[in-house]
Design a protein that fits this description.
This protein has 292 residues and is an alpha+beta fold. It is globular and about 55 Å long. The chain binds L-homoserine (HSE). L-homoserine binds next to helix 5.
């Protein structure tokens, strides 16, 4: 038997829609695998009642199939589904790393990214790598068609998760079909600023680079209280605020020492909007870890 812990992630970071992602140092999914003649899946933990255990319908079933690695797979969810914190990706990433080890398949971490992304397609309808890449590799990742670039980065973050559900499918339906040239120019500037901020470990640049004039405004409509939460987080010292992944979690970047105040302010603002929420005081963390 083998155990893998794979972290929650935050994709997009505003300006990097379907491209940027970071591993969060908490929360995380834990997956245990043992060899079997056919794949079985059991799920416990946060939101497990909403997750199918049928291998045809669960992200990890597709991963086991792709690696030709049938196994008994036990998933302990630390990351609630439909949260915007890469819940299905954490399970897919953990399963890919675990089954690769269990069956000694010899794939590199980079090679496991598209395999885990296929698992993602089972739940979201499309194979995005922007959550599985950081969950497998850790740090800040740039996922492109032709591969993934990753860098270690250290930026304090707050991920505030409201008690509402936004499915990735629904959140993708509101993504605009196109963008005006001035929005494209602004987005390129923001994304470049954010990437440099990650490389330098500069919360100011990362926060400024999170601004997104194209996708985030449409998705904000799906999150009750988003505008107030965003404003409150800035007032409490955030350097940047955006929707985490497809939402509804809201991500704030900040300088060290500001997380507690920002977390409290975001939870209060959701509360004022009539929405229960919890906040993770977190940061950019490591990728999937194997325990024998
Ligand atoms: N980039 C994806 C989205 C992340 O925002 O829809 C969720 O899979």
């Amino acid at each position: 038997m083998l155990t893998v812990r794979a972290p929650a992630t935050s994709a997009n970071l505003g300006s990097g829609f379907d491209v940027f992602g970071v591993a969060l140092d908490r929360p995380a999914d834990v997956v245990r695998v043992s060899k079997a003649d056919r794949t079985t899946i059991s799920v416990t933990g946060a939101g497990s009642q909403f997750i199918p255990e049928d291998p045809e319908k669960n992200t990890v079933g597709a991963v086991a199939e792709a690696l030709d690695a049938p196994a008994h797979i036990r998933i302990d969810k630390g990351v609630r589904p439909a949260s915007g914190l890469g819940s299905s990706a954490a399970s897919a990433a953990a399963a890919a790393v675990a089954l690769n080890e269990l069956y000694d398949r010899g794939r590199t971490r980079e090679e496991l990214v598209p395999i885990a992304a296929e698992g993602e397609a089972v739940v979201s309808g499309a194979a995005h790598a922007d959550n599985v890449a950081p969950s497998i590799l850790g740090g800040f990742t740039i996922a492109r068609e032709d591969g993934v670039t990753s860098v270690d980065a250290s930026i304090p973050l707050v991920a505030c998760l409201p008690d509402i559900v936004v499915s990735t499918r629904d959140a993708r339906r509101v993504v605009p079909d196109g963008a005006r040239m001035e929005e494209v120019v602004e987005t390129v500037g923001n994304a470049a600023t954010l990437a440099v901020g990650m490389a330098r470990g500069d919360p100011e640049l990362v926060g400024r680079g999170m601004a997104d004039p194209v996708v985030t405004p449409s998705r904000a409509e799906l999150i009750e209280g988003y505008a107030a939460v965003r404003e409150t987080a800035f007032d409490a010292g955030a350097t940047g605020v955006t929707i985490s992944g497809a939402g509804p979690a809201v991500l704030a970047a900040c300088y060290p020492g500001r997380r507690r105040e920002i977390a409290a302010a975001m939870v209060d603002a959701f509360d004022d909007a009539g929405v229960d929420a919890r906040a993770y005081q977190t940061g950019i963390g490591r990728g999937a870890e194997v325990f024998r």
